[in-house]
Design a protein that fits this description.
By secondary structure, the protein is mainly β. The chain has a 5-stranded mixed sheet with strand order 1-6-5-3-2, with no helix packed on it. The chain has 2 helices and 22 strands.
Amino acid sequence: MQRVIAFLLLFVALCSAQVGPGTVTGNTAVHDPTMCKDSSGTYFVFSTGVGIEIRTSPDRTAWTYRGLVWPNGASWTDTYTGVSGGSLWAPDCYYDGSTFHLYYSASTFGSSHSAIFYATSSTGLPGSFTNKGLVTSTTTSSGYNAIDPNLLVDGSNWYLSFGSFWTGIKIESVSPSTGLATSGITGIAQRTANSGAIEASAIYKFGSFYYLFTSWDTCCQGTSSTYNIRVGRSTSPTSGYVDASGVALTAGGGTLVLGTHGNIYGPGGQDIMTDGDGPILVYHYYTSSGSFLGINRLDFSSGWPVVV
């Protein structure tokens, strides 16, 4: 009976009017944001762009553009972007108390000739990062796509999830000492609907479950974007994810967390971090004026994440 009640509460929450983005001010025109907080309490958002854009905030509300991770370019990525100084995609940051760890990807639209790279910095500021090398890459014959990295730190274990279209979301172990891959690749989510449109994985542990967030459908089309955020959960970080209806994520399952509502179009490209007030969902969304930073708290009291 308790499981039935919990499911009904989740159903009611998900069917209620969707919550809009929390208040942010300043320079918030971002795409594929990831957020870290350093030991001084300063928030950092890294996002897609030439050189990877950096913004900071003292309070998670007022944001200032600071510059680029790679102000002098990242020539080691040129073979994947196809140009010198190409846009670098979907960074993911982790701050361990003294070091910023940054994963990011290089590719071109519609191609699986792609790669994920790793860098570190003691400050997170423009020009301070050191290239630590290639983590993983794919070719046009790989059957999956090495973009949209996301790091899960689970005790002494590090896992990197990634993937876009093709055969979906993958996961591999990475070394905490080098940040580079140490194991084979396993599939954890896949769609066949809408040409297999699933990407932007983010795994977040809450309680006894690992929650796998993904973005479905069409990104990057302004107010025509149909991106939406989905989730499944598992007791293992590397397998067994199901949605709230019990459908495996490897079989196209995924419970809606946030979709288009009102004048907010195509929310996605998400990241999840823990702050003093709990789990925080970070994402981009479109309006008629462009792509912007969305920040909301997540409530897991039903056993499933609800945007608040």
